[in-house]
TrEMBL record:
Residues 2-107, 121-218, 224-312 form the Ig-like domain. The keyword Signal applies. It is a single-pass type I membrane protein. Residues 1-23 form the signal peptide. Residues 373-388 have a biased composition (Acidic residues). Residues 302-317 have a biased composition (Polar residues). This is Ager protein. Gene3D superfamilies: Immunoglobulins (2.60.40.10). Keywords: Cell projection, Disulfide bond, Glycoprotein, Immunoglobulin domain, Membrane, Repeat, Signal, Transmembrane, Transmembrane helix. Residues 389-399 have a biased composition (Basic and acidic residues). Coiled coil: none annotated.
Length: 399
């Protein structure tokens, strides 16, 4: 209490000193009336006084006469100056010179500043979730209709948030309405949450006009949820491709490196398997009923859950000869079987054609001379064969 009293006394001293020496600073709210008193002037006419002003409305000093019907400012019967609705253009200096009852000249000097309190600031585009380690837009604080411009500042958990151009970035913008002269401020906050921070930080923004005795205006707080970035979940299969002989073993391993380790559950053909959490699913002695589509789901208490891409597990009779049926295997195996089948078919066809040609040539061969050696004979046979094949192709090409 004593300190407050002392401060009050000092303020009074300063005000009086200002009034006597440098003039008085007046702040007035836009649109409201302002009355400036002419010190020393008698309360009633006849008075000897002169008001003069230098504001946004006047080019230089303008002298007001008591009788003048000025719409902007009027001298009242008691000598005070009335501005019925003050505006931004009324900012400036007002002076009055009056003769008091004892014939002494008294001067009043006012510096008038106007202000407008904006609407309650708001946070727009507020983030509901922030990700650790990457820059996230928290939101944009908007204040509309202030004069002078004033400032917006952000708070985290009640403490001022100082932009550092690294983890805390604030982008500010101000616009001025050309008609009203009032300001719209925007402040966009981007933060990069550090690992291990609060899961639910509270952000708020406040507007301050920078005038004494004017409390800042606060936005409603926002509380985004901070989460660790989810690693990509991977499902590894052994044997690769997920095809196993009946009675074989399949090992499915769910790989995710988030800390703490998440709960891992398994899904087969869309149905969760009733197993305890484990990153490994072992399928020993695989039989037909084990075939299906498997995936794993990692669940974090705070970060939600993530499912792996599914894999197909199937059995294949690898003991039997001949082409695989292809119905059990995946599409890759089917294609392989088809390719093998085509190749096999081509091989058989070639053999057949060869056999036919061989037979056709048998009688001719007897008429020919006995070749000097076996190699020559084979060479000739090959040449004939290709000639004959060409002839056959030409024949086939006809009608
Ligand atoms: C009035 O404001 C001016 C500038 O804004 C400042 O220099 C001066 O000290 C103030 N006077 C009083 C009495 O507060
Ligand atoms: C002068 O008159 C106005 C309006 O009647 C009043 O508001 C103001 O306080 C008066 N000023 C003085 C110095 O008496």
């Amino acid at each position: 209490m004593p300190t407050e009293t002392a401060a009050g006394a000092w303020a009074l001293v300063l005000v009086l000193w200002g009034a006597l020496v440098g003039g008085q600073n007046i702040t007035a709210r836009i649109g409201e009336p302002l009355v400036l008193s002419c010190k020393g002037a008698p309360k009633k006419p006849p008075q000897q006084l002169e008001w003069k002003l230098n504001t946004g409305r006047t080019e230089a000093w303008k002298i007001l006469s008591p009788q003048g019907g000025d719409s902007v400012a009027r001298i009242l019967p008691n000598g005070s100056l009335l501005l019925p609705a003050i505006g931004i253009v009324d900012e400036g200096t007002f002076r009055c010179r009056a003769m008091n009852r004892h014939g002494k000249e008294i001067k009043s000097n006012y510096r008038v500043r106007v202000y407008q309190i904006p609407g309650k600031p708001e946070i727009v585009d507020a983030a509901s979730e922030l990700t650790v380690g990457v820059p996230n837009k928290v939101g944009t604080c908007v204040s509309k209709g202030s004069y002078p411009a004033g400032t917006l500042s952000w708070h985290l958990d009640g403490k001022p948030l100082i932009p550092d151009e690294k983890r805390t970035i604030v982008k500010e913008e101000s616009r001025r309405n050309p008609e009203t002269g009032l300001f719209t401020l925007e402040s966009e906050l981007t933060v990069t949450p550090a690992p291990g921070g609060a899961a639910h930080p509270t952000f708020s923004c406040s507007f301050s006009l920078g005038l004494a005795r004017r409390r800042p205006l606060n936005t409603a707080p926002i509380q985004p949820h901070v989460r660790e970035p989810l690693e990509r979940i991977q499902l590894l299969v052994e044997p690769e491709g997920g095809i196993v002989a009946p009675g074989g073993t399949v090992t499915l391993t769910c790989v995710i490196s988030t800390q703490p380790p998440p709960q891992i559950h398994w899904i087969k053909d869309g149905t969760p398997l009733p197993l305890a959490s484990s990153p490994v699913l072992l399928l020993p002695k695989v039989e037909h009923k084990d075939e299906g589509i498997y995936s794993c789901v990692a669940t974090h208490p705070s970060h939600g859950s993530q499912e792996s891409t599914p894999v197909s597990i199937s059995t294949s009779e690898t003991g039997k000869e001949g082409p695989a049926t292809g119905s059990v295997g995946g599409s890759g195996l089917g294609t392989l079987a088809l390719a093998l089948g085509i190749l096999g078919g081509l091989g058989i066809a070639t053999l057949l054609i060869g056999a036919i040609l061989w037979r056709k040539r048998q009688p001719r061969r007897e008429e020919r001379k006995v070749p000097e050696n076996q190699e020559d004979e084979e060479e000739r046979a090959e040449l004939n064969q290709s000639e004959d094949a060409e002839a056959r192709e030409n024949d086939a090409g006809g009608p």
